[in-house]
Amino acid sequence: MGHKLKIAGWVALGALAGALTTVQLQATARAALAPLPLEELQQLAAVFGMIKSDYVEPVDEKKLITDAIAGMVSALDPHSQYFDKKSFKEFREGTSGRFVGVGIEITMEDGLVKVVSPIEDSPAFRAGLKAGDLITKIDDTPVKGLTINEAVKRMRGEPNTKVTLTVFRRDENRTFPVTITRQEIKTVSVRAKVVEPGYAWVRVSQFQERTLEDFARKVEEIVRTEPNLKGLVLDLRNDPGGLLDAAVGLSAAFLPDGAVVVTTNGQLEESKATYRAQPRDYWRRAGADPIARLTEQTQGLLKRIPVVVLVNEGSASASEIVAGALQDHKRATLMGSQTFGKGSVQTVRPLGPDTALKLTTARYYTPSGRSIQAKGIVPDVWVDETPEGNLFAALRTREADLEKHLAGRDEAPMSEAEREAQRQREREREAARQRLEEEQRKNPGARLLPEFGSDKDFQLQQALNQLKGLPVVASKTATERPAAKPDSGS
């Protein structure tokens, strides 16, 4: 599977699709069980007994069983997972958009934690942290040598506990400590702004429980600022997915009432479903549906104005559902590069108060019946990341690169030529990784790709040209990557 990269967060976002997936939440598991294979279960019990009695040192029984469950589930596909108490808590935080911490969006830069933005009204915001600040120590632990996930875990904790961050602020050339009291943070998954008169940019970073509320609030602010909106760019680049309901609801904001958004199909009758652009198919919580609650003016604009959807290799799962629905209904022009290719749905079934099973239960299909599993969605217009091309796109892992990925509709065992093509992609990924590390050595602290939504965002500028009917600088080198064919047995 290539190298596990410990570099700037943007290169690894595609891989997050394996951890943050399109899910349906169910309170109880199925009551009826299939007949049990008694002979195999007797073998399992025998192995358990041998380990307990014969292993070189005592083994914790509970850990042995949970490890066996985790191994059984992980052998199915990259997205099925057993959640122990800790991982289930982290999963729920990821989909709820709530966690206990200091309240900063971060990336890694030159081995340090860089503040991308403090979350508004968070403890870090009130403590005066600024975008661009570099965190060099978390309590007494130097950040150098930590991965981004290790740094995040150290900054999170229990409510009302304190953490001291040592901050280097470049523009003031000073280092200083900041002690922050952790609190529950509500993340905002939607950013938006008017980028120039008549045109807006709306970015969805992932699909969480609060995404529809965030989206509705942001687009209402845009319409108040720019009532004569002429076009909108929906930015789903590096969006790893999230909740199916949120994807259906966001699609409904742009599609005619009742239009098909996505269909699913699996073994269970409940897995065979059609989701349409109507509140009963995406809004299952108390309170008014935020999409239906939009003002008449905003609803009219979203249904009518030209839309460009920006996607790339990191656009996965729920973001592919939105992109596929808007493309099939010819409601938007897709621009960028071929998406991740995660065309499966996971159901989370609690096993107890603190544990659960995330299991792949269905494939999903775009309104025209396309399965994008292990292939992805091909944009209408291929656009490179920069005027110089896709400098580091090879670093992003896609569904077809994951071991044991669910086979796509037309997949068959790989030929030797296809295995060589896969090996070539691994070589290209390694070359891109080395190129990135060399660039970072030459320009420590420099941002190698422009921030999404900035005036230096090349793909955004091409999207605006598309909306205005101006010439678009399309890629001359990007080509469609066909559906992958896994090794037989994977």
Could you characterize what this model shows?
It comes from Tepidimonas taiwanensis. This protein is of the alpha+beta class. The chain has 2 domains: 98-186, PDZ domain (Pdz3 Domain, Roll), CATH 2.30.42; 190-468, 2-enoyl-CoA Hydratase, Chain A, domain 1. It is built from 11 helices and 20 strands. The chain has helices spanning 38-54, 61-74, 85-96, 123-126, 148-155, 211-225, 244-254, 296-304, 318-328, 416-442, 458-468, and strands at 23-25, 81-83, 98-101, 104-109, 112-118, 134-138, 141-142, 162-169, 174-181, 183-186, 190-196, 199-204, 231-235, 260-265, 273-276, 307-311, 333-336, 344-350, 356-365, 381-382. Strands 1, 2, 14, 15, 18 and 19 form a 6-stranded mixed beta sheet that branches. Strands 4, 5, 6, 7, 8 and 9 form a 6-stranded antiparallel beta sheet that branches. Helix 7 packs parallel to helix 9 (318-328). It starts with 22 loop residues before the first strand and ends in a 22-residue tail after the last helix.
Structural class: alpha+beta
| CATH topology assignment of the largest domain | 2-enoyl-CoA Hydratase, Chain A, domain 1
**Outline:** globular
Taking Cα atoms only, what radius of gyration do you get, to the nearest Å?
A: 23 Å
